[in-house]
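WARN no homologs supplied; continuing
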Amino acid sequence: MANLIAQTHTLPIRRIKYAYAALKALIRIKRFDFELSIDNKIIDISESFMIVLSNGKWEGGVFLISPTSNPTDEMMEVSINIAKDRSHLFIQLLKFFLFKKVSTTSFRKYSCKSAHIRVRKPIPTHCDGEIVDNLHVVDFKLLPKALQILSF
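OK structure emitted
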C-alpha cells in the first residue's frame, strides 16, 4: 500500500516520499488472512500486516527489509510481518528508516526457491515497485540465471 501512495505523490526527495507513504499506509493498513507454502511446505502463520519476498536487501531503495538476502545465492527470502498491532509495526518502520536490522519479534524470515500465497480477500500487491493489482493468489519461483543483462 505504501508503494501505491508513494507513486501518486510528487514529494521531491525519495526518502521523504516513502516515509510519508509508509506513515499514511500505516494508518490504513489492516491485517489479512492468508495461506502460505514455501518450497511446498505449509507455514503455520496465517495472519499478517505484510509479506515481503525479496532477492535483495532493500525494499524501494529505502527500507533495509532483508539484510541477509544475497542475489547470487539462488534463494529468495520471505519476510512475514507478525507485529501484534500498528504500534509495533510503527516501531519497525522507524528501524527501517534508521537502517537497523529487522526485528525477529516483528518478522519471521524463511529462505526458499518458491512460494505460494493465497489470501482470503484480494489485497494491494506490487512487484519490484510496480503496482500489480489487488491479488488473491500469487506464485513465486526463483529462476537462477534466467535474466541476462547486456550493457553497452
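The longest helix spans residues 14-28.
OK
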